[in-house]
């Protein structure tokens, strides 16, 4: 978009100058005029090119910084980030955290869809180092589960780390970033189940072992099926809890 069109857009009724800044910088990145690692023009020149004042320009830059698109370096200017998937999708985790309990099982359904395919892809690509790391996490959990009072938070943290290894082994950074973005909300739900449902940790541990066995055998069909079965147990728990809870419908 040319500077003239940008200035015209900034005067369009109903379009805020901040929106113009966000859209204009986005378009510059899409067009290749700004690339990852590039420094933005100085504030005065950019404001003139977009036909906006400096305050909306700063607000637009701040908004894009929160999205992970830009980063401001003190005393050095503003730069386009690497536009890494994990950084750009991180705000999704914030949106997920704001959801109320009534939609939790929907979030887990999305997680199940993503992670079952991640497991299948990982079965074809996972290396010995990743398998060893996953097995070590399960050994730590097994030791915790032999205690009279296991640390549920430690068990769940190892659970999340186990799933993260699988997601990253799928070699799809967008898929891994999406799965990670759902992690905050699902951790709280898994911890609640771990504490309130007797035997839940032991069941999850056995299911993790079966998933690891499928990955070790490089069997994508079994990895997909066992991951799905594992995640359905969590999903079923959440559905049952939403039915009996007086705060959800």
List its salient traits.
single chain, 249 residues, mainly alpha, two-stranded antiparallel sheet, disordered C terminus
Secondary-structure map:
Blueprint: H1 3-10, H2 17-31, H3 43-50, H4 54-66, E1 70-73, E2 77-80, H5 85-88, H6 90-97, H7 104-125, H8 128-145, H9 152-169, H10 173-181, H11 183-196, H12 200-216, H13 220-244
Antiparallel strand pairs: 1-2
Helix pairs in contact: 2-4, 6-10, 7-9, 7-10, 7-12, 7-13, 8-9, 8-12, 9-11, 12-13
Report helical residue fraction: over 70%
Query: Over all CA atoms, what is the radius of gyration?
Result: 23 Å
Total strands: the figure is 2
Mean pLDDT across the residues is 85
Largest sheet: 2 strands, antiparallel
Structural class: mainly alpha
Terminal CA distance reads 48 Å
SS field, number of helical segments: 13
What does this structure look like?
With 249 residues, the chain is mostly helical. Helix content is 72%, strand content 3%. The protein is built from 13 helices and 2 strands. It has a two-stranded antiparallel ribbon. A hairpin with a 3-residue loop joins strand 1 and strand 2 (77-80). Helix 7 (104-125) packs antiparallel against helix 10 and helix 7 (104-125) runs antiparallel to helix 13. The longest helix has 25 residues, at 220-244. The N and C termini lie far apart (48 Å).
In short:
With 249 residues, the protein is mostly helical. It is 72% helix and 3% strand. A two-stranded antiparallel ribbon has the order 1-2.
């Amino acid at each position: 978009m040319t500077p003239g069109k940008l200035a015209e857009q900034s005067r369009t009724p109903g379009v805020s100058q901040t929106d113009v800044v966000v859209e204009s910088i986005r378009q510059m990145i899409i067009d290749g005029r700004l690339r990852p690692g590039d420094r933005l023009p100085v504030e005065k020149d950019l404001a003139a090119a977009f036909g906006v004042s400096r305050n909306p320009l700063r607000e637009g830059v701040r908004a894009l910084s929160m999205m992970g698109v830009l980063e401001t370096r003190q005393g050095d200017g503003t730069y386009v980030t690497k536009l890494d998937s994990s950084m750009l999708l991180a705000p999704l985790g914030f949106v997920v955290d704001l959801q109320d309990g009534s939609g939790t099982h929907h979030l887990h359904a999305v997680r199940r869809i993503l992670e079952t395919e991640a497991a299948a892809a990982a079965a074809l690509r996972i290396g010995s180092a990743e398998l060893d790391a996953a097995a070590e996490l399960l050994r730590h959990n097994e030791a915790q589960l032999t205690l009279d009072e296991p640390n549920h938070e430690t068990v769940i943290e190892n659970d999340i780390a186990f799933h993260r290894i699988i997601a990253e082994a799928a070699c799809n950074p967008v898929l891994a970033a999406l799965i990670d973005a759902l992690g905050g909300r699902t951790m709280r739900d898994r911890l609640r189940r771990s504490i309130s449902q007797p035997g839940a940790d032991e069941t999850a541990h056995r299911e993790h072992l079966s998933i690891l066995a499928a990955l070790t055998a490089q069997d994508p069909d079994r990895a997909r099926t066992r991951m799905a079965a594992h995640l359905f147990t969590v999903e079923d728990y959440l559905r049952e809890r939403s039915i009996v809870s007086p705060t959800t419908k």
